[in-house]
Write a structure and sequence with these properties.
2 copies of one chain form a homodimer. The first copy, chain A, is built from 12 helices and 8 strands. In chain A, helix 3 runs parallel beside helix 5, helix 3 packs across helix 12 and helix 6 packs parallel to helix 7. An 8-stranded parallel beta barrel of chain A has the order 1-2-3-4-5-6-7-8, surrounded by 7 helices. Chain A is globular. Chain A is of the alpha/beta class. The relative contact order of chain A is 0.16. Chain A has one domain: TIM Barrel, CATH 3.20.20.70. The C terminus of chain A is likely disordered. The interface between A and B is large, with 58 and 58 residues. Chains A, B: InterPro entries: Aldolase_TIM, OMPdecase_AS, OMPdecase_type-2, OMPdeCOase_dom, RibuloseP-bd_barrel. Chains A, B: This is Orotidine 5'-phosphate decarboxylase. Chains A, B: It catalyses: orotidine 5'-phosphate + H(+) = UMP + CO2. Chains A, B: Keywords: Decarboxylase, Lyase, Pyrimidine biosynthesis. Chains A, B: It is an enzyme of class 4 (lyase).
Chain lengths: 297, 297
């Protein structure tokens, strides 16, 4: 009698950066925000309540989760309905991931020590109800305060997107301030991210949030990680602006559009067409291997 | 037939700063955090799951909401259980406010535009499930990005606590950076708060989060608003340190203790005794009108 063969070790999850690169190359490099504004619910003919939130969210997921690279629910619009809103968010995350989209939870969390660890447990632990492929975080407490999230993401094959340089005018007060060594704070954050991503192939798992409406950003964006660029569409930037802002890093940009797509709902075909147009425009502007594939394969 | 007398206008809520001043003067100037760490639940003989979370939270509220000035639930520890955790948080907020405590939601939210508006709707709109007396926010996107929260708080008689200068060592990277006019970023934030609170009596409603373990903070803390000082107890600061850190503003300090009180649970009387000891020590250190009143009046 021979001993049974040892069980195979559990498969490690592929790193987020690799999964994102694959999704961008096959589905086109586009992130669509799920931002259930009250006014948007009304425009869709829905009520601004939990029923409207649920209908809106399920429609967006149904329309787009099998074809766009990333869906980005904006946590704030679910939190305003308390626990019932979070239940809708849980289902959206689960359904979107099951359909093959990467889910980036836009929560911009930031705290220290065990509290940051609890946020990591909420969004980056595989057994959490809101387990996501990545989460946005805010570094006002210092980049190293985010370490529990960075560690949890690495263990789970997930990603972390750190606020670096945003396009709202009032952000310069903080992000263009000067660190002790003369760098701008935005550059300090970007340099931390580059260090985290050093050596990662084909792309690191620590991303930067960088506004797409900045013109020349005046910082070094070569972080070897994804660059989430909100502001496409309603905020005034177009895909054609991306090379001017991001230069040699344009191929790592994940442009994010929200109202520019969502305003075409609730018709599913119209939502899909709008997302496809944006993806095509992005690919035309920045290059990229894959054609946008409506079936997501 | 005479016209009916016009209905009295709805009573405006008293501003948060006034309500907080009254609570600190009558109940003693202490904030107790509700931080359901997994390890703390275990120490209490509870399971680290939704049942344990619920039991822990209800016990803390039962023990302290009728006697401490402020209860501060840490949102992260509820978010890790998804919508069911948020349901526990909703009940805690409602029960604590009904028992007379002011509830400060420690969420450190921060975003721009309509997203910041949605966070304000989540925590500062009176009809929201998580409506709180105040919320903590993070200014990495610039102080003015917080305007929707400041406006919502003013309308509801609620408060906003803005991260300014934290005591974690990695925070200096950001908070001690230099703004364009030479001030530190922490000072820039404090000056914004002072402007918001100008003329408010007896205390403004925009507070600052300032670490209590800093030694001399090296910034001007005269913001005419409350100064939330986490770090009492487990993080190493004692009430006796407060005058050295906060100087002439020590009377506006809301010292926050979490594990230093919570580790005495689950016994209700022991939790109450621990909170009373801290409140007495704070009053001895910084003065203050009111004696700690176990009945909360």
């Amino acid at each position: 009698m021979t001993a049974p063969a040892p069980a195979a070790p559990p498969a490690l999850p592929a790193p987020f950066g690799a999964r994102l690169r694959h999704a961008m190359d096959t589905r086109g490099p586009l992130c669509v925000g799920i931002d259930p504004h009250g006014s948007l619910l009304t425009d869709w003919g829905l009520t601004d309540d939990i029923a409207g939130l649920e209908r809106f969210t399920r429609t967006v997921v149904e329309a787009l989760a099998d074809r766009v690279a990333v869906l980005k629910p904006q946590s704030a619009f679910f939190e305003r309905f308390g626990s019932r809103g979070i239940a809708v968010l849980e289902r959206a995350v689960t359904d979107a991931r099951a359909a093959g989209a990467l889910v980036l939870m836009d929560a911009k969390r930031g705290d220290i020590g065990s509290t940051m660890g609890a946020y990591a447990a909420a969004y980056l632990a595989p057994d959490a109800p809101l387990f996501s492929d990545a989460v946005t975080v805010s570094p006002y407490l210092g980049f190293e305060s985010l370490r529990p999230a960075l560690d949890a993401a690495a263990a789970a094959g997930s990603g972390v997107f750190v606020l670096a340089l945003t396009s709202n005018p009032e952000g310069a007060e903080v992000q263009r301030a000067t660190a002790a060594d003369g760098r701008s704070l935005a550059q300090v954050m970007l340099d931390h991210m580059a260090a985290e991503n050093a050596g990662a192939e084909p792309l690191g798992s620590v991303g930067a949030v960088v506004g797409a409406t900045l013109g020349d950003a005046g910082v070094d964006l070569a972080v070897n990680g994804p660059l989430l660029a909100p502001g496409i569409g309603a905020q005034g930037a177009t895909p054609a602006d991306l090379p001017g802002v991001f230069g040699a890093s344009a191929g790592n940009v994940v442009p994010s559009v929200s109202r520019g797509v969502l305003r075409h709902g609730p018709d599913v075909a119209a939502l899909r067409s709008a997302a496809e147009r944006f993806a095509d425009e992005v690919r035309a502007a920045v290059g990229g291997a894959g054609a946008f594939r409506g079936d997501g394969r």
